[in-house]
Amino acid sequence: MKILITIVGLLLSNIALATQVCSRVALVNYQEILVDTSSTQKGEGLRYYLEKDQVAKDYLDRYQDGTKIRWQNAALGTLGTGMLIGGLFADDGSSTKKGLLIGGAAMIAVNFFVARTLEFNNEQNLNKAIEEYNKRNLPKIFFYPDGLPADGGKSPELTMGVFKDWSF
Question: What's this model's pTM, rounded to 2 decimal places?
Fold first, then answer.
């Protein structure tokens, strides 16, 4: 039962993190650009800029293909949920009940961690797209996946300083 509560907690925290993904921004010409627009494609807000560079566009397309729902993950999650529900309705004290509960919880946990790993690795395609674009094009794109920095969106490339050397 503790495993089931832990899995539900992990899934709920994942839902909370998903709301942050919708607010990812990038700075282009000192303006904030939404990376994930209201369309179904993640990263679509940068397409206008990344289309200018074929390599960057290819990485963006690869990123967007990687964000699509995979039938394998859906099937494995459905099967794990079915096993959990079957375990809840099985006769008390039977080994089948324990097997279904543990197997269903394990299947859901493995599916969750595999999906998160694939999602994390897929984010590298978006980072590579921006990196490739910035190598050859202007204006530069400064991408902040976790929101703008606490210093008001300034990055080392955008700061200005005054230095004075005293010599006598």
Answer: 0.68
